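We give this protein:

***
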Amino acid sequence: MARSLVEAEYQGVPVGFTEDGWFNATKEAERFGKSPHEWLRLPATREYLEAIERRYGKIPYVRTSKARLDRGGGTWLHPRLAVRFAQWLNVDFAVWCDEQIDAILRGEHAHFDWKRTRSETTSTTKVMREVLRLVRLDEGKTTGPHHYMKEAKLVNWAVSGEFKGLDRGSLALDELALLASLEERNAVLLGRGIGYDDRKKMLEQHALDWRAGHQAKIGRAA
């Protein structure tokens, strides 16, 4: 079954949850030299699962995929079981899992900040492209793919220092946020009729100011 994974790091190792809090018990048990089937066979586990079903109803609280482990295979546990299973593995790991699942179910995990920001860049890109088209239309010019690409590469340069395409899916949250801010700023500058060379300087300065402000926020939070 296809799953969109929320990844977090525990002691430097990535741990995957689904966006609704499910947990790959097989993968995480390996690091502790255990197997979820051992835990599922325990009388206390069966008793607990029966109690959950009495309370919340009989649904698939345990799911198994025959896919390769690195492709989402293994035994997956519902969030109502995940922390109890994690306690069997390691109590410190269980506390950490509880925090991650709680943040996921509340929609407060950093993963969701990334998704919201990624969606925002889709909107700012559309706005920037439309402003470019309208400005050129007012000048009696048509707008082709190379014009849009030129603006995209300009913004990408302000983010990465290189005039090339960016894989937005691989950008960190702060890079995505900066990209959205730059596209928004570039749309405003285009609308004001500011030329390419001047916009390049202004976007470079905007990126520097944005990063300085971002670092200052991190410093205050620390």
User: Anything to note?
Assistant: The first helix runs from residue 25 to 30. The beta strands are 5-10, 13-18, 23-24, 62-65, 74-77. Residues 5-105 form one domain. The chain has two domains: 5-105, 110-221.
